[in-house]
């Protein structure tokens, strides 16, 4: 078997094991057994448990970003691109629950360098969403007070909501990718449309103290 194929087989086993048991509890013996190889071969190819976990994070992050990008057709209106991107995101996380668990649950909770790898992926997706919101604002010739910093904050909020919703959808039987995408579009885009029209929520109007 070619080395590249064997490595992917080992990483498949590692992702499944890390997702099921957690990074700390997972052992190289268990990963090797699931992959059908010897433990020394896992060490020979991937050096250490830390490096194996890092390689898994990078692979799963790259696959997620690629799925989102592949799901979007440039040139369409910004809201359609966002819809397509969200649908691709939720489809990928639903079809790869172990990979999503590694990214969303495991890597973030075990410090550096693992959290940094996930942060890099999140930054790439957030930058893309930031671009879409900016495009939508320009298309709508929106409220001129919608500043770059506010757009950046909205992008952060939208990505954070997508991550939480993906975790919920994967734990809730019967929730489809399209349903999850629709939920987030209904929650976020309707509000964005009002904001871009200059219709802002006001603390004073709501009598917030």
Model description:
Helix content is 74%, strand content 0%. The chain is mainly alpha-helical and 209 residues long. The chain is elongated. The mean pLDDT is 84.
List the helices and strands and how they pair.
Layout: H1 3-21, H2 28-35, H3 39-46, H4 49-70, H5 78-95, H6 97-106, H7 114-139, H8 148-171, H9 177-196
Helix pairs in contact: 1-2, 1-4, 1-6, 2-3, 4-5, 4-6, 4-7, 5-7, 5-8, 5-9, 7-8, 8-9
Query: Average pLDDT value?
Result: 84
The shape is elongated
Low-confidence stretches: none
What is the tally of beta strands?
0
SSE ordering:
HHHHHHHHH
Rg, alpha carbons:
20 Å
Helicity level, as a percent range?
over 70%
Question: What descriptive keywords fit this protein?
Answer:
single chain; about 210 residues; about 75% helix
Structure described in brief:
By secondary structure, the protein is mostly helical. The chain is 74% helix and 0% strand. The radius of gyration is 20 Å and the shape is elongated.
């Amino acid at each position: 078997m070619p080395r590249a194929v064997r490595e992917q087989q080992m990483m498949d086993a590692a992702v499944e094991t890390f997702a099921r048991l957690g990074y700390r509890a997972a052992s190289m013996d268990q990963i090797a057994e699931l992959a059908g190889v010897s433990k020394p071969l896992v060490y020979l190819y991937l050096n250490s448990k830390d490096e194996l976990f890092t390689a898994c994070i990078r692979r799963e992050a790259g696959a997620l970003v690629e799925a989102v990008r592949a799901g979007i057709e440039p040139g369409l209106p910004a809201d359609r691109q966002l819809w397509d991107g969200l649908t691709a995101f939720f489809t990928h996380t639903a079809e790869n629950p172990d990979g999503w668990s590694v990214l969303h649950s495991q890597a973030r909770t075990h410090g550096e360098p693992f959290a940094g790898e996930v942060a890099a992926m999140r930054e790439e997706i957030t930058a893309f969403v930031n671009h879409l919101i900016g495009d939508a604002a320009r298309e709508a010739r929106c409220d001129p007070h919608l500043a770059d910093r506010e757009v950046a904050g909205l992008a952060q909020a939208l990505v954070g909501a997508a991550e939480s919703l993906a975790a919920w959808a994967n734990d809730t039987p019967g929730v489809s990718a399209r349903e999850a995408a629709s939920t987030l579009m209904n929650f976020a885009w309707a509000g964005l449309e009002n904001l871009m029209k200059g219709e802002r929520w006001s603390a004073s109007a709501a009598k917030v103290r």
